[in-house]
């Protein structure tokens, strides 16, 4: 018992002495952050003294080499040293004599206070900037070392382009023309020529045998110097594919960056080409959106909804750096990329220039996605639902050649949606009443969530009037996809060469 009392007494003494011991170990700056006046002259040691006005003055033999003054608020420190070495002569420094004397370069170095964790993707802050001042013309140029050198930075996923672009590049718009389409020349070509962009050309590749029509195209150059025309004589014995026409157009283009479209696509604004050209500053491939022109009738709505939702799938993948295709009405790439890949792939097929070829050249870092209503196009329709299903069957023939991961991704959404609807129908048919109510409630909740998401997607792509009847497309599209799958089981002779 006595031993227990002795230990308790020692513990109490220890608890009483500990605060004093800890107080003696607290850094001086911690006290200054709270209140400078708490430090008294009697507590001053041999390394510093307190002046009459309350400033703390370190002795001259301190490690800092001078006098240190703390402001009244303790926030700033001024260091003075009377023994600064000023014997260095700038004129005698070993400086490169070839440097221009009229330019002054200043290095600005800062600290990015944001996260630098690899899990957060790092932050590409402009913390190292070179300021170049031209004393002759007064111009100032800023160069961010991290941003503008375009080098591989460890920890960053985007390794940038191999070449730096300081402005929007000149662009060649390549348009293959497979018929004597005067409506394109009179209605849609002027919308391309009217683009608000300083440096571009329109390369028209005419595939046909009508010399008069081609002469009309050539005469357009007198009024529109940016037009370049090329003719491929059409011989029934040697059919010309779109790939061959594009290949001729690429070789005829004068500029490195090229944007491809079709005679059926209509720009919605004069900013389309400008926005697409900006994509080349970030990647070698540019993909945009092309919807279907708005018309009357249920079939037109289904066409528009099908195009919008399927485009949303591959555009979303491209945004997540897993691109697998573009649209032949609105995409582009560079000449060096095309010739570096030895041209188009799958030459035994008349299709594939917008998906099979793109899958060959696309990487995680060379694709720019342009999502803006001003950069969207609209495709003219030339028929109803029968014509549309024929188009889907024709271009859908390339689906079997997609990578397995891409095919799984496309089929998963459709399969999961079909399974959900089937489950709701079964629950409503055979389950008790309370389960029927729960199933219908889940169906309504899903439609509300989907409607909100569809509205967001439509606004981003420049579509309108899509949300009101979307539940109809949502219910019928699985049956539509099933019918298309059956049609694709039969070989389409139009595809193969």
Keywords for this structure?
single chain, alpha/beta, Spore Coat Polysaccharide Biosynthesis Protein SpsA, Chain A, 3 domains, seven-stranded mixed beta sheet, three-stranded antiparallel beta sheet, 14 helices, 17 strands
The biggest beta sheet is recorded as: 7 strands, mixed
Q: For the largest sheet, list the strands in their spatial order.
A: 10-9-8-11-15-13-16
Instruction: Please work out how many helical segments DSSP would assign.
Output: 14
Q: Could you give the distance between the termini? A: 104 Å
Which ranges are low-confidence, i.e. pLDDT below 50, for 5 or more consecutive residues? 9-48, 54-84, 116-123, 155-162
What is the CATH level 1 assignment of the largest domain?
A: Alpha Beta
What is the arithmetic mean of pLDDT? 80
Any idea what the CATH architecture of the largest domain is?
Alpha-Beta Complex
Rg from Cα: 35 Å
CATH topology of the largest domain: Spore Coat Polysaccharide Biosynthesis Protein SpsA, Chain A
Helix content: 40-55%
Please name the fourth-level CATH homologous superfamily of the largest domain.
Answer: Spore Coat Polysaccharide Biosynthesis Protein SpsA, Chain A
Q: How big a fraction of the residues is strand?
A: 15-25%
Number of DSSP E strands: 17
């Amino acid at each position: 018992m006595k031993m227990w009392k002795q230990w308790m007494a020692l513990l109490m003494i220890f608890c009483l002495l500990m605060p004093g011991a800890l107080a003696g170990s607290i850094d001086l700056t911690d006290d200054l952050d709270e209140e400078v006046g708490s430090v008294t002259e009697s507590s001053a040691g041999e390394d510093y003294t307190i002046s009459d006005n309350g400033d703390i003055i370190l002795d001259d033999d301190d490690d800092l080499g001078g006098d240190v003054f703390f402001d009244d608020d303790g926030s700033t420190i001024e260091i003075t040293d009377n023994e600064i070495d000023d014997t260095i002569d700038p004129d005698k420094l070993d400086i490169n004599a070839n440097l221009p004397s009229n330019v002054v370069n200043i290095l600005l170095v800062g600290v990015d206070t944001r996260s630098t964790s690899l899990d957060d993707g790092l932050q590409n802050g402009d913390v190292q900037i070179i300021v170049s001042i031209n004393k002759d013309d007064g111009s100032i140029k800023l160069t961010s070392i991290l941003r503008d050198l375009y080098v591989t930075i460890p920890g960053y996923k985007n390794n940038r382009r191999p070449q730096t672009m300081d402005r929007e590049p000149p662009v060649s718009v390549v348009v293959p023309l497979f018929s004597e389409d005067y409506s394109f020349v009179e209605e849609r070509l002027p919308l391309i020529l009217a683009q608000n962009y300083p440096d571009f050309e329109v390369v028209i590749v005419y595939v046909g045998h009508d010399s008069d029509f081609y002469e009309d195209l050539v005469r357009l150059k007198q009024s529109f110097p940016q037009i370049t025309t090329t003719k491929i004589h059409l011989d029934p014995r040697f059919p010309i594919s779109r790939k061959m026409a594009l290949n001729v157009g690429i070789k005829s283009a004068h500029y490195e960056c090229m944007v491809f479209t079709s005679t059926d696509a209509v720009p919605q604004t004069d900013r389309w080409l400008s926005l697409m050209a900006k994509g080349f500053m970030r990647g070698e491939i540019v993909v945009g959106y092309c919807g279907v022109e708005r018309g009357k009738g249920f079939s037109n709505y289904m066409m528009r909804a099908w195009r919008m939702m399927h485009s949303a799938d591959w555009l979303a993948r491209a945004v997540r750096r897993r691109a697998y295709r573009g649209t032949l009405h609105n995409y582009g790439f560079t000449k060096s990329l095309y010739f570096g890949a030895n041209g188009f792939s799958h030459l035994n097929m008349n299709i594939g220039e917008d998906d099979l070829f793109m899958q060959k050249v696309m990487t995680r870092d060379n694709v720019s996605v342009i999502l803006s209503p001003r950069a969207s196009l609209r495709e003219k329709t030339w028929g109803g639902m029968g014509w549309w299903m024929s188009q889907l069957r024709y271009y859908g023939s390339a689906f079997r050649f997609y990578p397995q991961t891409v095919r799984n991704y496309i089929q998963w959404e459709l399969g999961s949606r079909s399974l959900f609807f089937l489950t709701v129908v079964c629950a409503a048919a055979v389950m008790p009443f309370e389960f029927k109510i729960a199933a219908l409630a889940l169906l309504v909740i899903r439609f509300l969530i989907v409607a909100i998401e569809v509205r967001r997607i439509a606004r981003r792509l420049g579509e309108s009037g899509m949300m009101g009847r979307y539940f109809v497309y949502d219910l019928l599209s699985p049956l539509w996809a099933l019918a298309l799958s059956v049609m694709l089981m039969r070989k389409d002779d139009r595809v193969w060469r």
